[in-house]
Amino acid sequence: MAMVWDAITGECLMTLQGNYGDVYAASFEQSSQRIVVGSADGTAKVYPPSSETYSVIMEGHTGNVWAASFSPDGSQIVTSSSDTTARVWSSESGECFGTMRVHQADVLAASFSHDGRS
Predict the structure, then answer these.
(1) How far apart are CA 102 and CA 84, in angstroms?
(2) Do 61 and 118 form a contact (C-beta atoms < 8 A)?
């Protein structure tokens, strides 16, 4: 289960539904409008503003999703996994644009550069 908390008051603002197993990653889009959550079920899910239900699911990893983050313009998401891959996805459709298979162990982190070019 993933929850969104008010950083000042400590109040739980909402509980994000649809995550099965442990949640290992959560990241806001730069505009703070959407949230991406990665979990032990091998998926990453995008939640629209003020919604407890996901709008996009990214399926393809065969292990835990350790990291998930938006590109600076919000159009793509990068994930990393215990299946030794990192993937780049459309944040709108959940389509996988590419899979990087160059590691021999868990990929624990992945993110875009600030200019979004790499």
Answers:
(1) 8
(2) no
pLDDT cut 70: percent of the chain above it: 100
| Cβ-contact 25, 40 below 8 angstroms | no
> Average pLDDT of the chain?
93
Handedness of CA 93, 6, 108, 115 (dihedral sign): positive
H or E stretch covering 73: none
Burial 97-112 (b: 16+ CB within 10 A, else e): eeeeeeeeeebeebeb
Centre a 10 Å sphere on the Cβ of residue 46 and count the other Cβ atoms it contains: 24
Residue 89's alpha-carbon distances to 46, 68, 113, in angstroms, are: 11, 10, 16
Percentages helix, strand, coil for the chain, rounded to the nearest 5? 0, 45, 55
Neighbours of 4 (CB within 10 A): 16
Alpha carbon separation from 61 to 18, 43, 46, 108 (Å, rounded): 17, 7, 16, 13
The whole model's pTM is what?
0.91
